[in-house]
Amino acid sequence: MATPVIMPRQGQSVESCIITKWNVKKGDKVKIGDVLFTYETDKATFDEEAKVEGTVLDIFFEEGDDVPCLTNVCVIGNEGESTAEFDPRNKDAAASEKSASEEKSVSAPVETKEVPAETPAPAAPVSSGDRIKISPRARNLAERTGVDIRFATPTGPEGRIIERDIIALRESGPVVTPAAMSEYMASGISPMTSGTGLGGRITTADVEAGISATAVAASQFAPAQKPEAEFAEVKLTNIRKVIAKAMHNSLSTMAQLTLNTSFDATEILEFRKKIKETKDRMGLENITLNDIILFAVSRTILNHKDLNAHFLDDKMLVFNNVHLGIAVDTERGLMVPTLFYANLKSLNEISREAKALAESCQKGTISPDLLKGGTFTVTNLGALGIESFTPVINPPQTAILGVNTVVQRVREVNGEYVYYPAMGLSLTFDHRAVDGAPAARFLRDLKTNLENFSALLAK
Amino acid sequence: MTYDLIVIGGGPAGYLGAERAGHAGLKTLLIEKRFIGGVCLNEGCIPSKALLYSAKIYDNARYGEKYGITVQNAVLDHEKVIERKNKVVKTLVGGVKAQLKRNNVTVVEGFGEIAGRNSEGYEVKVGNDTYTAKRLLIATGSMPIIPPIPGVREGIEKGFVLTNREILDLKTVPASLVIVGGGVIGLEMASYFNSAGSKVTIIEMLDHIAGNTDREISNILMKNYQKKGIEFKLNAKVVEVKEGSVIYESNGEKFSAEADKVLMSIGRRPVVEGIGLENIGVEIEKGHIKVDERGKTNVPEVYAAGDVNGYSMLAHTAYREAEVCVNNMIGKKDIMRYNAIPSVIYTNPEVACVGETEETAKQKGIDYEVANISMRYSGRYVAENEGGDGICKVLVDKRYRKLIGAHMIGNYASEIIYGAGIMIETEMRVEDIKEIVFPHPTVCEIIREAIFEL
């Protein structure tokens, strides 16, 4: 049976993806696991693997095409089979997604009857997240049995997945071990058809391998180079386009200005040293200076709510929780994942989560849903030796904190000059939303909290 | 005539692989140079279990007072024990042969050597006959390591230095027995001959016995043995073997241990020489055949399973490896996993382990949690083990809250451990295991008890 391959939906907010590279041509034979094409969202790149074996019968889109999610991209099947019904450009066919899923629900039972010994090929996975229509009973069963509901063929009313679909999926589809399930669903890796565990179960090791494989695949994507030419024409990646648009929009629409200050970092440097010595014994993360700043910001900014806000021209959304954007430098460009509810998390939790977010950005496995929703952003160029800068606000946020390097400064104590380590802070804020004095007051409070960090921790 | 598969070696990997292949319809030939069943069935796992069971009955009779039983004149008749052992082996070898026949496997007795390739596949020579097959499964197993210690080779020739092979056929119980190497084989033989009346001394180079077994458990086992009168010389190196004594060095000093017989059980090495691997270019790495997770060697359609691939010298590993090989031959996707392979020492008390130990978990950087409880949490254990000091240890991966290791010392452990193996293999979490019903009263309930400690 010919099987259409759809453009997967990577996260709820993604409407379309761009095909960046085709690895197969029409007529090629593919095996399960072969990479069909590479595509990118505006945040990351992914590989789409063949879920079934066969011949590539037709390809509906070219490299560079922007394809709506869940649209048929190509068809795999046996030579000679018709593909017209799957062609999204074919106006005679009904809406492509619909026809594809109907096709499957009709033919799946027939297939199992004809060749009962053979496992039916799992249906192409559908979008992740809450968009899947599924009955509570079916969801409950799916959670208990460890099947990936994205592979379920819905047979309930209005395309709803019901209990029997999960039962069918348990026989044919991938099963995830209980321990691997939550990370499998949460990590944003592409759905797997089988794993290396007992009876093909997807294990924690598979999920870990999947995460790093996605990262490798993503990093392999590099702009074309023409070394012989005087200059290289580099097509902008989607990520670069997004950054360009956002940054220009930020500077052209806001009234941004930056306040610079510095604080005595003696206490946090000592605290960090102590953590380094005891972290193994205490089971703590490797807490960095940046983690300490994230923590301090999360505990300070709620007293300066205008800075923890979105400015929307005629109104402001002032948030009661702190969702910290963290600027991460990746090979593909700047990414800003969000650490949600930072104000409710411990320093250790913040440290762990910040590390995990940065890592999945580096690997390119970050879920697009984690790249939005920030209420305030922290960016750190301290590691690169920067002493002060003007960070650019991530709209519609009202401010961003730049963290600088530590330098030795001198001050007078009892008539003597003493050295102390000073760390710079650069706060850019939108003067449309906040005035200079309140912004300065936030910086002053943040400085006090950082200089008396143990007292802050005790709060 | 061309076979679909030639299996070289008739031990657990070889005979089971041949059975499975035959069952799947492959035309299969099995070549065995010595006895069908291999070391496991003839000179290892099975015969030693027969001996140990006899010893257990004898010990129960002798030491039954604490349970209210007094037996007079209990005698261990070593000759009869060996006779019965031979009967057990014969029965089981007969069973394996019947299974092979039922699965249409042709068996050739003789030494198989890979001669090369031809257009049909691979040629294997047995004496003057040449057989050809499209595929090979190399299952030549392992042999005892004989260290170049002065006197050992002569001792073997004269018959007072033994390996696992000879010791199982001793006609009489030696008055004193020195066992070189405190691994599984050494410990099991120590257990039997101690019960049978030998003065047993174990000389071990490391500072602990039982290899990679959880250290706390191997210490408990050693204490149990010491109570029975077995002597341990740890951190000790044998420097010479003479007729009647073994000279060993410890802390720079030389000592002598009285020895009517000496058992060499320092380890085993894969059999990769003399079987013609070089004729088809099979890659050997650190003395074993290199295979991938499907059991494939670097040569197309040539597979290797069991001790010869160097992963884990256990019969049950070999079984599964052979199945993985055969499944891949017949086009069924299958891979070998080594994370939940149980290991058992059939001493009294028994030791059984599966998965990570604290030592390996630390090495791998796994963030784990451990529950360590006395076997006396189990009612049946208390009822049946007067003065028993067994423990059960479970390790849980903190990140996923899944079971990653289980270790126990106490009787029935050998029969319980597979349950923990399943939990590890299926990556059950602590909360999943808590929902499992265990029969009461049993010793296996100890797993449940340990899990609820977490």
Note the topology.
The complex is a heterodimer of chains A (459) and B (454).
Chain A: E1 3-6, E2 16-22, E3 29-30, E4 35-40, E5 45-49, E6 54-59, E7 66-68, E8 72-77, H1 96-114, H2 136-145, H3 163-172, H4 178-186, H5 204-220, H6 238-253, E9 256-264, H7 266-282, H8 289-300, E10 309-312, E11 315-318, E12 324-326, E13 328-330, E14 333-335, E15 338-339, H9 347-363, E16 376-380, E17 399-413, E18 416-430, H10 436-451, H11 453-458
Helix pairs in contact in A: 2-3, 4-5, 8-9, 8-10
Chain B: E1 2-8, H1 12-23, E2 28-32, H2 38-43, H3 45-62, H4 78-102, E3 105-109, E4 112-118, E5 121-126, E6 129-138, E7 142-144, H5 152-158, E8 161-162, H6 164-167, E9 176-180, H7 184-196, E10 199-203, H8 215-227, E11 231-233, E12 236-242, E13 244-250, E14 253-259, E15 261-264, E16 268-270, H9 277-280, E17 284-285, E18 288-289, E19 302-304, H10 315-329, E20 343-345, E21 351-355, H11 358-363, E22 368-374, H12 379-384, E23 391-397, E24 402-409, H13 413-425, H14 430-433, H15 445-452
Parallel strand pairs in B: 1-2, 1-6, 2-3, 6-19, 8-15, 9-10, 9-15, 10-11
Antiparallel strand pairs in B: 4-5, 5-6, 7-16, 12-13, 13-14, 17-18, 20-21, 21-24, 22-23, 23-24
Walkthrough of the structure:
The complex is a heterodimer of chains A (459) and B (454). Chain A is of the alpha+beta class and 459 residues long. Chain A folds into 2 domains: 1-125, RNA polymerase II/Efflux pump adaptor protein, barrel-sandwich hybrid domain (OB fold (Dihydrolipoamide Acetyltransferase, E2P)); 240-458, Chloramphenicol acetyltransferase-like domain (Chloramphenicol Acetyltransferase), CATH 3.30.559. In chain A, 32% of the residues lie in helices and 22% in strands. In chain A, helix 4 packs parallel to helix 5. Chain B folds into 3 domains: 2-143 and 269-329, FAD/NAD(P)-binding domain (3-Layer(bba) Sandwich); 152-266, FAD/NAD(P)-binding domain; 343-452, Enolase-like, domain 1, CATH 3.30.390. Chain B is built from 15 helices and 24 strands. Chain B has helices at 12-23, 38-43, 45-62, 78-102, 152-158, 164-167, 184-196, 215-227, 277-280, 315-329, 358-363, 379-384, 413-425, 430-433, 445-452, and strands at 2-8, 28-32, 105-109, 112-118, 121-126, 129-138, 142-144, 161-162, 176-180, 199-203, 231-233, 236-242, 244-250, 253-259, 261-264, 268-270, 284-285, 288-289, 302-304, 343-345, 351-355, 368-374, 391-397, 402-409. In chain B, a hairpin with a 5-residue loop joins strand 20 (343-345) and strand 21. Chain B is α/β, with parallel strands linked by helices and 454 residues long. In chain B, strands 1, 2, 3, 4, 5, 6 and 19 form a 7-stranded mixed β-sheet that branches. Chain B has a 5-stranded parallel β-sheet with strand order 8-15-9-10-11. The model of chain B has no long low-confidence stretch (mean pLDDT 95). Chain B is globular, with a radius of gyration of 23 Å. Classes of the chains: A alpha+beta (459), B alpha/beta (454).
